[in-house]
TrEMBL record:
Protein name per Swiss-Prot or TrEMBL: Glycosyltransferase involved in cell wall biosynthesis
InterPro entries with a match to the protein in the record: Glyco_trans_4-like_N
Species of the source: Amorphus orientalis
UniProt-listed CDD domains: GT4_PimA-like
Glycosyltransferase subfamily 4-like N-terminal domain boundaries: 7-173
Pfam families in the cross-refs: Glyco_trans_1_4 (PF13692), Glyco_transf_4 (PF13439)
UniProt GO molecular function: glycosyltransferase activity
């Protein structure tokens, strides 16, 4: 299974490997990009079923051109042969472009430039995205099964790339955590605020409209990607995951105004920490959180403000929404995620068996 040190893929891969260990599955973890820190290496070392190999090539998200990633398929093919693995789980289609794997290949699409761009139609398509899109297309062609974290994202990826292989839904997961007994009257949002999909402008405008503070946790800039400077919200900058979870356990309300999410892991983490949810009315959130959150149009600052103020003014309603979100979050457990992953792997093996005569002829 491939991984990288930053972003949600790290947490996804490590938790999946841990869950696989409980089912007797051994995992070879192959990392790309910036090296792990000491805490991350210790976490890997604590996994009895996992072995880590780190490759000195750029991660997909830090690559500047197609050639930066050209070594990855060759490396993965060689490792699959030398380590005698039974299946490749690649956490990004770009890693599979040109792959000649001797074993079934499952490719996870955690995020996608094409689906995100369609959701944020005010952002022009860039030349940088064009090579990434083409590389993703070539990568998906090597897949025996594709994995997506929601049915909404599965359908979006299927349409964007014209996929013919099965797309299996494997939900993100979070370990339930107890929220603070004494909640504080503030609103929390978390994300990569330089990313237009996260709709930082609406969150910042919301802060000017509310009677309580709005805290924006997460990076405000990324080299070569962009920067957001809030005028009204309290910006924390990047925080350790443990500190973000602490804030989630304190905040009365967690708000997310994203234009697009493939899943929205921060929403799940906030719900499992005991926050009430006020979310943008997008297909992914309706799919996952219908009946467990308040919904507003992504750019409707006044609507978000009204929904949040109504919850804060009605403790009984606030508590009911906390309970609803917490109960829903318990559906997305690591154990459930592993069940879905194993189903996806079975689908990849079946597809590979069906394709084997075709691959031999090629």
């Amino acid at each position: 299974m491939t991984l990288e040190a930053g972003g949600g893929v790290w947490r996804y891969a490590v938790d999946a490997a841990k869950g696989m260990g409980e089912r007797g599955v051994e995992c070879l973890l192959v990392g790309f990009g910036p090296q792990l820190d000491r805490t991350q290496r210790r976490e890997i070392a604590d996994l009895d079923n996992a072995h880590l190999i780190w490759i000195d090539t750029p991660a997909d998200r830090t690559a500047t051109c197609d050639a930066d990633l050209d070594r990855q398929p060759e490396i993965l093919t060689r490792l699959a042969h030398d380590e005698r693995v039974d299946l490749l789980h690649l956490n990004g289609p770009a890693q599979a472009a040109g792959l000649d794997s001797p074993v079934p290949v499952a490719i996870a699409s955690h995020a996608c430039i094409a689906t995100g761009w369609h959701a944020v139609d005010t952002v022009p398509w860039s030349a940088d995205w064009s090579w990434r899109f083409r590389r993703n297309q070539r990568g998906f062609a090597a897949a025996d099964a594709v994995i997506a974290p929601s049915a909404t994202h599965a359908e979006a990826v299927r349409r964007a790339y014209g996929l013919t292989v099965p797309v299996n839904v494997v939900h993100n997961a979070a370990v339930p955590s107890a929220g603070s007994r004494q909640r504080k009257r503030y609103v929390l949002a978390a994300g990569r605020w330089w990313d237009d999909e996260k709709n930082a402008a609406t969150i910042d405008s919301l802060a000017a409209s509310l009677s309580v503070p709005v805290v924006m946790a997460g990076a405000l800039d990324e080299e070569g990607q962009g920067r957001f400077a809030p005028a009204h919200a309290i910006a924390t900058g990047p925080l350790p995951p443990s500190e973000v979870r602490r804030l989630m356990g304190e905040a009365a309300v967690f708000v997310c105004a994203s234009h697009y999410e493939s899943f929205g892991l921060s929403v799940l983490e906030a719900a499992s920490a005991g926050a009430a949810l006020v979310l943008s009315d997008i297909s992914t959130f309706r799919e996952l959180w219908e009946g467990s959150a308040e919904f507003c149009a992504p750019d409707d600052t006044a609507g978000f403000a009204a929904a949040i103020e109504a919850l804060l003014a009605d403790p009984a309603r606030l508590e009911a929404m906390v309970t609803a979100a917490t109960l829903r979050s318990r559906q997305f457990t690591p154990n459930h995620q592993v069940d879905q992953l194993l189903d996806a792997y079975d689908a990849a093996r079946v597809r590979r068996a069906e394709r084997q005569p075709e691959l031999i002829r090629a």
